[in-house]
Structures are given as C-alpha cells and as structure tokens.
C-alpha cells in the first residue's frame, strides 16, 4: 500500500539527511517574534502575524520547491542545501503562480460563504420575527457545498509542487498532473490525506498550546500557568523544534507518497 510504503521510506531518508530539517527550522524562526510578543503586547503580535502571513505568500514557494527537491534526492541517497537553493530558484515562479491562484480561490469561496451566511441570516427572519427553518437549511447546505468544493480542490491539487519540481512541469501542468495522479489513486490518496490530517491536527494542537502559554491569561480563560518573558522564549523554542521535526517528516513523506503513486516519478510503480 502506497501510504505504508512511503511511511517506511521516510525515516531512513531523514536519518541519512538531517539537513532536511534546516529549511523548515528557518521558516519557523519567523514564528518566534509572534509567540514572544504575545506575552508582551498581543495587539502588536497580531499586527506582526498579519505582516508575516503576507510575506510568507511570496517566500514560501521558494522553500516549498527547495524542500521538495531535497526530499526527492534524500529518498535516493544524499542531498544538500545546494539542491534546496537550486530547486527553489528554478521552480519559484511556477509554484508562486499556483499559490496565488489557490489564495484567490480560497478568498473567493470564503467571500461567497460569508455573504451567503450574512444575507441569508437576515432573510431567515420573517416580518413577524420568526426564523424561517427552511431558509436556514438552504443556507447551511450552500455553505456546506462551498466548504466541500474547497476541500475537493485542495484534495486533487495537493501534489502540484511535487509535480512541478520532480516532473519538471509548469504551473498549469503541475496542477493538471496532480489532479490526474490523485484521480487514478483515489483510495490511496484519501488514506494519505486522513493520516496527514491527523498528524497535522496533533501538530496544530501543540502550536495552539504554545500560543496559549505565551498569551496573557485573564480570569475568564483556561487556568494555564503564567510564563515570564524567558519562559515564553523557552516555550517558543520547544515549539520551534517540534515544528521542525514535523515539517521535515511531512516534507519527505509527501514526496515519498507522490513518487509511489506517480508512474513518471523516480520511484513510481
């Protein structure tokens, strides 16, 4: 099974190439100021978070391409940061284009869901102040369909970066190839997505706990221990290390799985 085969290949590739954790570590370093600032000034932390999110839109394609390239090499033997830079440069534009398209799709679907909920909410109340149950059901169905459409888009195009880097395709070709590969391996990809979703949920929980520990606590919030500035730095570093380990594992595992289900990849079957 592709999911298990890729899972077996990942640890040995990481053991041979611990350098794979370095790019992920650098990405997560950007999160340290935000976590530390939460313990000092949550408002400033929110502004910094917004700025970092905008910057990430333009720098993540480079890291994404570089990590995929390194992981592809690591599964066959050795890799290096030179490969990271080379693949990042050569595939940056293609992955950036797809990333911007996905951001636009995300925004458009979110925009539709938001206004359907808002205007539908007003329409749900009749002149007598009663709630139209039928209208609420229709609103719920529309929002659910929008969410489902978004998840389906992500499901089918999730391997675009692997297709662009490993199969040397452009932005459009990468999207098409990802859809084709997933379409021919629906069950395996569903299993992979469920496993990644579970692992991602665990990682997200760790980050959430770290964020809560570094945020000022009020009497109405959860009874979490207060941490000093030094404690916030320590918690942030622990989250950073965990995130680097998870990110490195996921980077290699996603490539290993793609190579297993993709007939054109180096290790395809």
TrEMBL record:
The chain crosses the membrane at residues 48-71, 92-125, 131-157, 186-209, 229-253. Residues 1-260 form the DUF7847 domain. Keywords: Membrane, Transmembrane, Transmembrane helix. It holds the Pfam family DUF7847. The keyword Protease does not apply. This is DUF7847 domain-containing protein. It comes from Haloplanus litoreus. The lineage of its organism: Archaea, Methanobacteriati, Methanobacteriota, Stenosarchaea group, Halobacteria.
